[in-house]
Design brief:
By secondary structure, this protein is mainly β.
Length: about 200
Amino acid sequence: SGRTDENGMIIIEELRFGKYYILEKEAPEGYVLNTEKMYFEVLKDGEIIKSNMKDKKISGTLEFTKTDVSTSQPLPNTLIEIYNDKDELIFSGRTDENGQIIIKELEYGKYYILEKEAPIGYVLNTEKMYFEIKEDGEIVKSTMLNKKITSTLKIHKLDENNKSLQGVNIGIYNLDGTLINSLLTDENGEIVKETVFEGK
């Protein structure tokens, strides 16, 4: 029993004539344990037997989804970047029509996701979203939320004598002429309405 050195080697001297096998008992961090027995045989005096055992790196899959914070609807065309724990960029891309990005064969380690460009009409989410690949074949599901851009519309309706007018119907339209909302002024002649930016 022993551990490999900094070169990944173990040298065992003066093995007697006979058949043997090597069995890995603990894999290096980030690698899958190799459970196969590796057989070898000592047949001649002074014989040097070289044996190589290979380990597979742990890798997994990220299933990332971008959704609206209020409706849980998927948000396509969001530009995101993924960085490793050394702040090195390893991926840049946009969510598909389902608001998803799927990345396979991500190696063992810690990562974070950053939104670089929000969909039209949404506030950019500047928080880092951390995740980790720890087990081989692991699927990490991650959802990042965005909220719509909103503003507050304030209207004060006055007559020619600067008297507030109650009950005046005010229409709000898109640039293409579509009526979005119809509102009435209150007893102070005012309308205060939170509106959602629609990107039009």
